Structure formats: structure tokens, C-alpha cells
Predict the 3D structure of the following.
Amino acid sequence: MNETTVTLVGNVATAVEYRETATGGVARFRFAVTARRWDRERGLWSDGSTSFYTVSAWRSLGANLAASVSVGEPLVVHGRLRVREDEREGQRKTFVDVDALAVGHDLSRGTAAFRRAARAESRARPDREPPSATGPVLGPAPEDDPWTEAVAGMVTEAAAVVEVMEVAKVAAMTTAVAGTAPSGEEIGGKGKETSAEHRLVTAS
């Protein structure tokens, strides 16, 4: 869907009205944009015609806007342009609305001090401790944590595999030693041969 976005520079014409709706909070105010023209005859800038827009800001933008903006302050408003017609007092009238995407003070007209808004979670839990400078601190996992149970099972299986491998290794080494060791008969035979030779030498 094609949408027309505009950037307006002007002044807040009415007090900001903020209210909660089913889809979130919304702030509305009238915004006056006055054209500036250079007057060659007098050699100075003069005000031209003034156009009025109804600006709507939703959710966090609306809440921050309601807490930051007062009547008469210069703003820069960027948003989607909406043109609608309505019948009032028997006459058809045209209204121009802007769904704001971003709103800020016009710093060519003055100064502003920015304050970062707290997150909704922080506002809901004011007793929450500030995060550590070294990073978040992780607490113990719950007793019924499926990840903890899965890791414990993997560790148990790994330990069983290692135990089986150790037993197999010991058995292989035992078999190898048993295969290379001389038997009792071989040892006894060698002893007898030695005894016979000894007898021959003794007899001679």
C-alpha cells in the first residue's frame, strides 16, 4: 500500500491530550505550520498563511510526547499523511491528520535535554536491582528444566561409554600378555634338559 509521508516544522497549537485505548495509549494535539517568506521590499522575513494539522502519536511515542511537549514549543513531526472529509453543522469540511512516526524539538529555535525512557519491564518492577557492570548474573536452572535433564543424561551415557572402553582395553592387554607368556610345560622341559646336560657333564 502506497502511503504519503511528510515532515512538518511548526509549533504546538493546543495542549497534548493523552488517553488509553484498546490498542494502546494515544496522544493528540493540533500542530500549526506557518510559511515564512522573504519580503524584498522591507528586507526581512514575514509570516505567510498558517496550516493546521491534527497529530496522533501511539503507544510509547505518545506517552513520551505527552510528558515532553507543551503549547507553543517548536517541533519537527515526521509521519503518515491522512486526508479525510467530515460533515459538521451541515457543511462538508476537510481535515488533514498526521500519524506521527517520530517527533522532536526544533533545535534551530532552542535547546533540549534528552532523557532516555525506562523500559516497560523496569517500570513494572521498580525494586529490580540494576544490571551488573560485568554482565548479567545467571541464576540456577529450575529443577524441572528439560535442558538440565538432557545434559545430565548425556553425561551419564558418556561416562558409561568411557567405562566400557576402559574394560575392553584392559581385556585386550590381558589377552596379549597371556599369548606371549611361556607355558608351564615349556618351562619344565627346559629345566629337564638342563638337568640332563648337567648329569652328562658331571658323569664325564
